[in-house]
Fold:
Amino acid sequence: MKDIDAVILCGGFGKRLRQVGSDRPKSLAEINGVAFLDILIQHVANFGFKRFILCLGYMGEAIKAHYHKRASSLEITFSREKVLLGTGGAIKNAQSLIQSNPFLVLNGDSFCKLDLLDFYKFHLKKKAVLSVALSKPGDDQNSGVVILDRRERIVRFNEKVKPVKGSRRSAGIYLMDREIFRRMGARRSFSLEYDLFPSLAGKDCYGYFCKNDFIDIGTPQNLIKAPDFLKHA
Structure:
């Protein structure tokens, strides 16, 4: 896994966390005294990943400063947005920095204890352009909901809705083939969840089911839950 790039989306505004007076980007929120992004990177690095590309937006300089202060054997590169590009635009903006095929993409504000090696094997077996890690369903409406066919192909994406019978929740972790850049077209600013993913439904995108739950720290309520969740993850 050491030759596969890990791209982490860290550009969110964290508007909901401002209600509790957060003075930092949400990916740097402290969980048990450790920055959430450090926890996420360490989890990925445990599978052998060595190269990380952080897509920066709001308060991106704080994230750069955080990693410039730290000595690490990992290679951490930054892709900076001059204007807001959305989650899809952020990945397209980082295209010149992404060296591997496929490459891993993660949301910088959510965590799922996923076996990334098994996820990678699944992606290769399916010969997928996009593989989406799926968590068990719940009542949380802060994640995407997908419907699969019998071949584990994703036939429908619905973002920020309550799960329905037979659906799965996106855990915010993806494996992407470089072919996906061609599927993005000429647009510069767009969303993965609302624009790109629905256009791939029923084609060569597949869902990988993980039995573990995930947490999105983007709300004050989940930020409070995060220390206990990560302790037992």
Helices lie at 36-45, 60-68, 86-93, 116-126, 179-183, 192-200, 220-231. The mean pLDDT is 88. The first strand starts at residue 6 and ends at 10. The longest helix spans residues 220-231.
